[in-house]
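User: Can you fold this complex?
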Amino acid sequence: EEQDLLLAAAYVSDAQYNRNIPFETSPQAIRLYCFYNHWTMQAATYFFICIDLSLALFEEPALFPLPFLATSIVEVLCLTAFLGRLVHFAKVTPQMVFWKDTKNICIMLTIVLTLIDLIVYGSLEAVNIRSVRWSRALRPVFLINFPESRQIRRAFRSIRNTLPDILYVFLLFLFSVLMFSLMALKLFGDRGLKTVEGSPYFTNILDIAFELYVLVTTANSPDVMMPAYDFNGWYSLYFITYIIINTYVFLSVFLAVVYNNYRKHLKNEIRKLAYLKRHKMIEAFNLLKVQVGTEFVVKEAQWRRLAKVVAPDISSSHLELLLRVSDEGQKGHVDKMNFLRLADLLNIQVVTINIKRHPLEAWMPRVYQSSASLLVQRMVRHRVFVWVYDVIILVNAIFIALDERNPFISYAEWLFLSLYIIEILLKLYTYEPRSYFGRRQFWNWFDVLIIIAALVATVANTTIQSARKYSSQQILDIVLILRILRLLRVIVSIERFRVIVTTLINIGPAMLTFGGLVLVVYYVFAIIGMEAFHSKVQFFDPNFTAPDALVCGNPALKDSAFARNRYCKNNFNDLASAFILLMELTVVNHFVLLAGGFALVTHQAAKLYFVGFHIVVVILIVNIFIAFILEAFFVAY
Amino acid sequence: EEQDLLLAAAYVSDAQYNRNIPFETSPQAIRLYCFYNHWTMQAATYFFICIDLSLALFEEPALFPLPFLATSIVEVLCLTAFLGRLVHFAKVTPQMVFWKDTKNICIMLTIVLTLIDLIVYGSLEAVNIRSVRWSRALRPVFLINFPESRQIRRAFRSIRNTLPDILYVFLLFLFSVLMFSLMALKLFGDRGLKTVEGSPYFTNILDIAFELYVLVTTANSPDVMMPAYDFNGWYSLYFITYIIINTYVFLSVFLAVVYNNYRKHLKNEIRKLAYLKRHKMIEAFNLLKVQVGTEFVVKEAQWRRLAKVVAPDISSSHLELLLRVSDEGQKGHVDKMNFLRLADLLNIQVVTINIKRHPLEAWMPRVYQSSASLLVQRMVRHRVFVWVYDVIILVNAIFIALDERNPFISYAEWLFLSLYIIEILLKLYTYEPRSYFGRRQFWNWFDVLIIIAALVATVANTTIQSARKYSSQQILDIVLILRILRLLRVIVSIERFRVIVTTLINIGPAMLTFGGLVLVVYYVFAIIGMEAFHSKVQFFDPNFTAPDALVCGNPALKDSAFARNRYCKNNFNDLASAFILLMELTVVNHFVLLAGGFALVTHQAAKLYFVGFHIVVVILIVNIFIAFILEAFFVAY
Ligand code: NA
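Assistant: Here's the predicted assembly.
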């Protein structure tokens, strides 16, 4: 009896959180399973994943160098934690299912490979041979393959499903690029033209193909055209045709294919999720059902106990509400159809709006209801009050833009700060505080937090300044950013702006999935890039006048555009730099310059790394991101 | 009676071609209206529009200079033609409707303004004062406002309907850019940082706003970040946040809003068109109906006469087919429901597939049916035949890539040409020629035309070469392009490729609408640009060693990136150059460099022109183009 209730609760909880893990139904296994799903265990797993991923900051090439022994001990610790989690999972799920699941195999394989890599690298290090820590590129496997990362896996599945369709478009696109390359070789190859840098123009088919691939990203427009255009104006037609076909039409087709698959996939996933949810709820129902008359139902007492197990923190008024909804006829039991809705009901956020009296009214009704007090309240509720503060914010913006070394302006900052505090106090005086700070009142929270933070930071800065006669740069920067963020409040006053911003904020959590996706891809590319390109390009402090500083410490960069544009800090010498460089490559601009620089210090084949990154990140992931925003906005509008 | 038929025919014709022009119903007016819609009149209108638009090639600043007198006479001629067309329209349409239609007012106003401008400019020219031919920017009005340009007007309407929604997003976006500018001013303004060019970094809020606006287009990434990034690695977070919010999220939201409106608008337009079409068909029916029993119908004879008037070129078998479809019960009359479908029926292309015998079979059956002949036919129909020719094409591609000065390779070209001709002859031998060259057989036409053109061009080139001992460069270039286009045939063999290409070809005609839209916007911006920037930047032949050649003939460009990158030919000195420059601006890359160059030779305010162009073309028109491709692909897939 008790065991059935626990099992049913596990099913309902799985349905509520869309979990799809088959588990054994023995009482011990169910308890283990609940423990497996407990938030502390999940948090611990993510904690170890974060530690494992961030190890790259401390390993050679390191941002904060630590000895190999230290990082490898931490890594073994993480691997142990992952293995423990996996063993826990193996105890929960049936043996057959466990060994058939590629996710588990992936994790085990990665653990073994990482251990092998650690041992090999450590041994070689001991005899002073430097080798490659290749297993680091596998670390994101842990982020993807634990059952918690359903969302990221779904995004990867979406990409995988898109691949066959996109592959054909991509091949056609490559074919088109090659055709145009051939044409360019024949049209311009024998002309003896020179680029701005004085090198021969379009004489080698591989170089041409690379330049034309880059032209699709527009990163070398119009430079790539100029020699031919200078030679003969008609040749511009070749480039215009190329850009229309390959940049505009093909890139749009890529987006169309990705978006189309994304929508199709989304629909399938939602349908599948709904089916699994229903299936689990039916199993839970079958465990608890009793026959009343001709139909099977769940008794009210049993239903209450179930709800208490699934949602231990539920308030009794909330529970009564759910029961009232589920047992409409007040028959003392819940029928099948209403029972199946329980998982969805539990997911609904119930906002209890109590029209409460203002505490001040209860405390000193005479004063609060006096005509002066009522006037203040009417004033604060009036539209003009909002307008006045919008004007104050705009004046504040102008003051911020002015020179702050002027003492008058620096004092004005205190004036504005007090005006904002007065505004909040007035609002708290007028509106009931608990509903003003309700869960959904995002903008009120934003207001108050920004003001308090600015107040604290300004006071801290003034204290430090008067005590030590100098300002801390970091605190000053933070004060400044907070002061400017305050201006965001102007948005709240304009209805249309609020709608757009609210839509963006609502899709924020789902965007985190993309954050995870991008993190995985960036991490793998960063590790590969760090192994291939680290310390090939050095950054020297601008005040440092080493002879090599101007060529980023590498003579191969002499006279290169990379060194001329002072791109030395765009390198793979540590994880943070690598991530920033990959971000620049995602934005695509000056792609040739960056790829060209790293090709100069290593080998022309290095360009393949950059083209590969472009295909994966810009053609696939950025397009999925756009598809996601399009879909989110269509639903919202 | 006869007049009713004519009027009904006019209604049906309007419904067939989606024309929405109210016209008078007197017999004379109907005849005038039919004449107004005749293709020769429409072609003449477009001819004069083309002449009028292309005048900019001959006017100062001219690609091919002509005296002002010549161009102004041609312009007056064009204006007369437009006026004539308008007068014709006025005679056709009711007086009230004519004067209420803004399209007509626009045309008349533009004619008057152009005449005033011509007179003022001519008089000033006579006393040697150079003024501005501002009315030239109004010329696209004629392209937009004649009733023929329904598609382009629809695209403009689509943009206009999108404007309110996009405006709010754009204001929010501007607000965000300004907030970030303010932050940048405060964070970096006092640091004394320098750009690569040695100028102060982020010290002026207007410059910062421009640079950050450009960063949205990614055209100055990562340069704009480098000084701050070199100073302190953490400042990269500012730029990464900026790029995520403004480049990725906002630009995606722009696309979402444009696409959303485009779909909504498209649906409305289609609904409206369907309503108007039905309305016209009902009017036509009411003119011709007679009562038979309880219902009103159109007699078969009357129906036939109507169809003959609407579609004079219809074949009798086609007419019988239409009648059979419309009069299903063979009752000798067409009922209302079937009559309303006539306009749509006339638009359906009827492909008559006659399984005809091959002419050779009729001519010499013995030979054509001999076992050797049958073997050849089976061979040609076999899949391997296609594969063999795919291999030949690929080998051909390799030969093209090799050095053609090698005589062996130059002879191989003749071999390939003959192989292709043999292929076509074999196919014509096997397949019935009239169905092989059917209307829908795009790829067969493509094959044959490319081969014949290549043959003609190669023969022409060889003739010239042997006669004059030198090759004509233009013909060589054309031969070369044709030779490479031949490789496109590989696509035909792969089913998936053919699907994609066919989709692209099918949306081709609709893309012409975008061509018109882009032409209008480019023309207006080109004329403004030519008036503002002409001869500020000069291009000198690379072999010419004038001292000014390196600064594009303008000392203001000394040490500028514009001159260093040899962008001298990117100028507004004639219409063709201006169009190519605007194309480069559409692609966005090196936007700062181009805008900066023209700001240097005139005034910093010139950057507004470039930003305006970016907003109109990239944010609006390119997004509509992408929306259009997305929609077309969703329908096709
Ligand atoms: Na770019």
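The mean pLDDT of chain B is 86. Chain B touches chain A through 80 residues (CB under 8 Å).
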